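step=predict obj=Aldolase n=201
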Amino acid sequence: MTQLIAIIRGVEAENILEITEGLLEAGVDTLEVSLSNEQQGLECIRTIKIAYGNQLNLGAGTVISEQQADKALEAGATFLITPGWDKELAKYILSKDVPIFPGVFSPGEIMQAASLGIETVKLFPVSDLGSSFIKNVKGPFPNMKFMAVGGVTHNNIAELKNAGCSYFAIGSDLVPRGATKKDKEKIKKNAEGYIKLLEEV
């Protein structure tokens, strides 16, 4: 999985292949398709899976129930991301032998995730938590990997990486909400810019 994860939200399935192509050309091979619009998200996952299933890591985000988890896996998702901490949902997803990156916002939630054997958690919204929080929780959780989500931009990605984040999931600043085929080159350029920033840190 690359350090950079593209969050796809509000994109119609008819536009998703060109967007995926642009991301792959830039070197981004990990996509999170949000289920905030469940039907739209599932259609995108199915479409990507058929065309590029062997070329990328395809996940579903904004998973809030066992039913959604099942639907996403049936559509072709290979990992699941939740917006917040739900121990029972996390245990259910783990029982499917599927990687889960649960949203957390406190040391207590990180500790609960660690107790289930989860190795990477999503700090969300990371713009509210800040780099000092990340540095502080790295102490008691030195083996936990952190995925920065929510407010990651060109201006703070280096700071977040230096604070201890391993992965960076970026939404509208990388793939605009409701993007279409016409946005392919813009998205590719966005991705290349972020990759360059991460390489320079």
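step=describe
The longest strand covers residues 165-170.
step=end
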